[in-house]
Design goal:
The complex is a heterodimer of chains A (224) and B (465). Chain A is an alpha/beta fold. In chain A, 38% of the residues lie in helices and 21% in strands. Chain A has helices at 11-23, 37-40, 58-68, 82-88, 103-117, 153-164, 172-180, 190-202; strands at residues 3-7, 27-31, 46-50, 74-78, 95-98, 126-128, 131-134, 139-142, 147-148, 170-171, 212-215, 219-222. Chain B has 465 residues and is α+β, with helices and mostly antiparallel strands. In chain B, the strands form three sheets. A five-stranded mixed beta sheet of chain B has the order 6-8-9-11-10, with helices on one face. The chains are: A alpha/beta (224), B alpha+beta (465). Chain A binds chain B through residues 10, 12-13, 16-17, 20, 52, 79-84, 86-87, 98-103, 167-174, 186-187, 215-219, and chain B through 262, 265-266, 269-270, 273-274, 276-282, 284-285, 303, 306-307, 309-310, 314, 317-318, 321, 327-328, 337-338, 341-342, 344-346, 348-349, 360-362, 364-366, 374, 378, 399. Chain B: It is a multi-pass membrane protein.
Chain lengths: 224, 465
Amino acid sequence: MARILYIEDDREIGSWVEQDLKRRGYEVDWLTSGDGAVERVADADIVILDVMLPGLDGFTVGQRLKKASPQTPILLLSARTAVDDKLQGLQFADDYLTKPFHPDELAARIEVLLRRYGGKAESRRLRLGHLDVDPDGHLVVDRRTGEEIVLTGKQLQIFMYLAKHPNRILTKEQIYEAVWGEPYFEGDKTLHVHIRHLREKIEEDPGAPAIIETIRGIGYRVKA
Amino acid sequence: MSGRFRSLFGRLKLKHSLLNQYLLIILLAIVLVPVMFPLSITVVYLLMPPEDLGGEEIYQFGAEMEKMWHNEARQLDGASAEEIDARLIRLKEKYEEASMYWVDGQGRTRLRLPDTLDVPERWTPAFTVRFMKERYDGDPFTVVAFIGGKEEAGFMVFELPRSEMTTRGQQIWEKRDTVLIMTTLSVIVLFLFVSWIFFYRIRRRLLRLQQAMTKPSPHGIPSPTVVHKPDEIGKLEQAFNTMIGELEAGRRREREEERLRRSLIANLSHDLRTPLTAIRGHVYSLQEEPLSEKGRQSLALIDRKVGYLGQLIDNLMSYTLLAAGKYPYRPERTDMVRLLRTVCANWYPAFENEGFEIELELPERGFAWEVDPAWFERVMDNLLQNVLRHAKTGNYLAVRAFRQDGAGVIELEDRGPGMNGVSGDKGAGIGLTIVALMLKEMKLDWDIISGSGGTVIRIRGLIQI
């Protein structure tokens, strides 16, 4: 069970979110101010932070939390205009949600962050179609046969990058630059070729891919 | 005396006026010419070594020498030839520059001092007459005296080149034209030099001031300059410093107002959104309760309106900042296809959820515009938000990028009811106003073609190479 450190000054919103998250099965530690947050961050798997805290500014609290525990993801809840927040907020925040947010969306973002950072105790196995994928162990197993699917270095890197961002559409540039570590050049077919070979290994029918989805004109997506 | 002089200076305010300083220089130059002339003559007189001037004291006065010679001749009355010779030799020792000789009663030239003197051995009456004619007021200065005052004893002659007789004063007086020209020239040269220094220093100070004015400090306002002198330029420097002070105060005020405005907007935004969040929370809780279909629809509507209000607040805040020119703008060369791809990747799921047919035609070879990526993202967000909200009935979205006539074009197409048509939600106004303001600032052209069959929005901009 993931532990959430939730910092929110508004009692009405705070109690509602706390209840909602508890109902979804999280353990919630709710503080109404930034005092004492730094001491508790070590026990948390994720921090949800409202930036308009009384006294200490949410940005200051966020920076302190990130410094104290860099491995804990921070989700920023903001009521400010996007202008200010986009400039200084995302320096330390891992994700960002503007009020009035929808509880389902909050839960979805928490899930994504937890998965990306690897919740502290949880096993990190993803079920993608007929595959079991362990992004940390760089392991891809065909669940039907129990056999590991051997991928080349680049194929594995591409697949793991997609698997770490499930349900997100990643552009060609993003994938190329994350895997190759150099700027993507327009018209480069390298990624396309690698994806085709990757699909030949992991898809049941490479002609109608079910695991790696092509979003025409944009990039690729792995649906969890 | 000195006190009165100082008070005169004070009245002229020399230290305070470059004009008066320069007038003083001109005045000094004018006064200096007549003063300098006698002064320079005196100086030349005092400085010139006496040898160069010739004319020792004893040769200065012809009358004295004449008197002396006649006196000597009278004293030689009845003297023998040897005595006369001895006397002349003695005199020659005294008057070294002079020539002397004597002629006896028979007209024969006797002792010549010096020996080389060009005098005939015998004096004919004709020669004597010519000699007397020539020498009268001639050069050399000549004195003829009868020995002993008697004609039969012969006469003695004293000759001295006139040049030996001129005094220093006379010599300088002869050079007065040269001295006058030299003095005038040197006064003019001095005047020009002093003027040059005067204006050179003014120029240097002005250049310093100009540098101070054009070299801004890190915060954009030039630093104050040090005022050294209380004259016209000093006053200019003072005015400059005052202006900088006012500029800085203005900048401070502006920053303070800016800070207040931002915090006001932030607080207002917070105060508006917090209750909205609470409303949404309660709507959500209500949805968990057993409700009739009608109640469920009402809740869905409330939820949608809450989301819409949130965006409206955001747009309102953005518009306030944008209209005041306070929305940070950082243009850079941006690969537009790449940016479009990122924006579309973010929006794709939302359209997918609504069941839109999505068509993306982004070329492999893109183009670049000089825009602020965050701004353009905002423009696309607002346009796509509008499509999602108002064109749901068409269930179609196309995003295209292409080159046309050397320009880059980004095109958005939907099959909604059109901008004048009926849509579930109203109030696309402020969102589009922000789009218009931002596109204008980024120097991009845009047009909307909207009909009952749908809407096409085209953004067109110069391609950056």
